[in-house]
Every structure is written in structure tokens, then in C-alpha cells.
Design goal:
mainly alpha
């Protein structure tokens, strides 16, 4: 299964800024979010609610995407877009790790935590 091109939010506008930022690389990249979407076993709607995705967005995702993996991916992209408006990826990733643990995807949470620790140790 390949990562869908739809809904790609490739630029971000930080709070109080008209200057766009490029999509993040690393733990908040589309490739990483797609990996999570493919391997997640928990309910994407519960994940959405715990990540703070508004109900209206959850309803739109449900109507727009028929496959669970696409719904999960769209949820994660929506979360990332909101999360990165307020903080850097290094501050947003722990929220995602904790939320994945709560919905029962401990294996993915552990995988992300290992990746996160590796990036923290880089100079």
C-alpha cells in the first residue's frame, strides 16, 4: 500500500505568521504518520478525540475516506497541522506517543519513543 497524495498539507503557517513553513521531516513527516496509520490497531476515532481533533473534522474524515488506514492518516495529518502551530515537533511527538499508548497501540508508541530518543541524542 502506498501513501496517498490526497490531503497532503505540505506547508504550515505558524501562529501569528504569514510565512509558510515546509512539511516537517522526521517523526512528524508524512512517511512517519503513514507508518503509524498502517500499523495502528486501535480505533482511529478514539485517537482523534484524544489528540484534540474537533468532532466536525472527524465527521468530514469519516465521509471523505472509506478505508480505515486513510482515515487514520488524515486524522494524524490534521493533528500535526494543529500541533505544529503551537509547538515544535520535538514537543508534539510526546503527546502522540502518549495518546497511542492510551488507545492500546503500545508497540507503535514504543517504536516512536525509540526514534524520538535517537533524534534527541543527535548534536
Amino acid at each position: 500500500m502506498t501513501m496517498p497524495a490526497h490531503g497532503d498539507q505540505s506547508t504550515y503557517y505558524p501562529l501569528n505568521s504569514a510565512e509558510p513553513l515546509r512539511s516537517p521531516i522526521g517523526l512528524c513527516s508524512d512517511a512517519q504518520l503513514w507508518y503509524i496509520a498502517q500499523h495502528m490497531r486501535g480505533d482511529w476515532e478514539t485517537l482523534s478525540a484524544l489528540l484534540g481533533v474537533p468532532q466536525r473534522d472527524i465527521d468530514i474524515i469519516r465521509q471523505t475516506h472509506s478505508q480505515v488506514v486513510d482515515q487514520t492518516f488524515a486524522t494524524l495529518q490534521g493533528w500535526r497541522w494543529r500541533a505544529l502551530k503551537w509547538r515544535c515537533p520535538d514537543e508534539a511527538v510526546p503527546q502522540l506517543i502518549g495518546t497511542l499508548s492510551v488507545v492500546g497501540d503500545v508497540d507503535i508508541a514504543n517504536y516512536l519513543e525509540k526514534q524520538f530518543k535517537l533524534t534527541e541524542s543527535l548534536p
